[in-house]
Amino acid sequence: MTEGNFVDYIKIYASSGKGGRGSAHLHREKFITKGGPDGGDGGRGGHVILRGDKNMWTLFHLKFKRHFRAESGGDGSSSRSSGHDANDVIIPVPLGTIIRDADTDKILYEITEDGRDVILLEGGKGGKGNWHFKSSTNQTPRYAQPGIDGKDGWFRIELKILADVGLVGFPNAGKSTLLSVITAAKPKIADYAFTTLKPNLGIVEYRNHQSFVMADIPGIIEGASEGKGLGHYFLRHIERNSTLLFLIPADSDDIQKEYDILLNELRKHNPELLDKDRLLAISKSDMLDDELKEEIKKELPEGIETLFISSVAQLGLMELKDKLWSMLN
Q1: Range of 277's domain?
Q2: What residue ranges carry the coiled-coil annotation (predicted)?
Q3: Is residue 285 annotated as involved in ligand binding?
Q4: Domain end call among 116, 134, 159
Q5: Same domain for 240 and 134?
Q6: 97 assigned binding-site residue
Q7: Which of 136, 150, 319, 326 has the fewest CB neighbours in a 10 Å radius?
Q8: 152 with 216, same domain?
Q9: C-alpha angle 234/249/187, rounded to 5°?
């Protein structure tokens, strides 16, 4: 999908249906002039339901339709006939979707399973018909319950991408190029910062027809956790990745410093991100000879395994896949 079609944040208004009225009908037919109460119950109002769909990966379908209203239930009628239950309004959403109350910002639901239904707003219950209220002291009740009103409200829907591996690095570190080489994804690639404005997903084909999903996240800059650059748009997507692949180019002035900045921005956004498995890849390594590689190895960060790769020259990519697969499994 194009960047303009990738939507990972939307605000919607939803309203469930009102329950139908119970009937206060009294039984009447030939030769029975004073029959008892036989009013039926009202039907349930329609729910507003969110359903996880593994075939979706964006909230673009909600961009131009943000109001969802369910119908009211049918009214009860004679002969204890119940009103019909209204149809539910079902909103499909991608896996990894979070639903928040727009007023309190409280997380209400997280949808991570395909086909899982979450009732966002319950429809109102139908009112009881008058036959429910018949008693020895009240043989012909002439009243019934009204239906219960539906509920409504504004909700914020956010998407956190579900991917096995998340690419973390400064703008122009070669993340999009790597994704385009080892997957069938076609991200936008250019030699200027912030080429990638929205996350891109690609499926990495591995040995024996196995695969895993990799996400190219827009580049981090210092201060991203405070919203600088595109930080506030993309950092939440990293939270869903089980493994983080840090990418730093071989021509970087200071690999240790870049790695520390990246790590610090993740820490400030969410300290739990540091609990994820991490791997460091030095990209654009085709410009290095053995002597330069040895020099760089002396300056590499401690506590993280490092590989030298080149997406353009196809160097070290199989070794990278092997390492990522072993970390994921």
Answers
A1: 165-328
A2: none
A3: yes
A4: 159
A5: no
A6: no
A7: 136
A8: no
A9: 45
**What does the block give as tokens for 282?**
């030095």
Same domain, 108 and 212: no
Question: Is 321 part of a structural domain of the chain?
Answer: yes
Residue 321 annotated as part of some ligand binding site? no
Q: Is 155 annotated as a binding residue?
A: no
Q: What is the pLDDT along the chain (329 residues), one digit of tens a residue?
A: 334 566 778 999 999 999 999 998 888 777 666 778 888 999 999 999 999 998 887 888 898 889 999 999 999 988 889 999 999 999 999 888 999 999 998 999 999 899 999 999 999 999 999 988 888 888 888 889 999 999 999 999 988 777 789 888 887 777 888 888 887 655 444 443 444 456 777 788 888 888 888 888 776 656 555 555 454 556 777 777 889 999 998 888 889 999 998 888 888 888 888 888 999 999 988 888 888 888 888 888 888 999 999 988 888 999 999 999 999 88
Q: Which domain-ending residue is among 159, 188, 220?
A: 159
Confirm or deny that 312 is annotated as ligand binding. yes
Question: Quick one: DSSP state of residue 156?
Answer: E
Is 283 one of the annotated binding-site residues? yes
Structure tokens at 135: 């008693």
Q: 172 a known binding residue?
A: yes
Residue 218 known to bind ligand? yes
Query: d(Cα 323, Cα 314) in Å, to the nearest integer?
Result: 16
Q: Consult the annotation and say whether 198 binds a ligand.
A: yes
Asked if residue 2 belongs to a domain, the reply is no
Residue 260 annotated as lining a ligand binding site: no
The CATH number given to whatever domain includes residue 273 is 3.40.50.300
Q: Tell whether residue 169 is among the known ligand binding residues.
A: yes
- Residue 120 assigned ligand-binding role: no
Tokens at residue 17, please?
A: 């249906």
Neighbours of 169 (CB within 10 A): 25
- Residue 221 is classified by DSSP as -
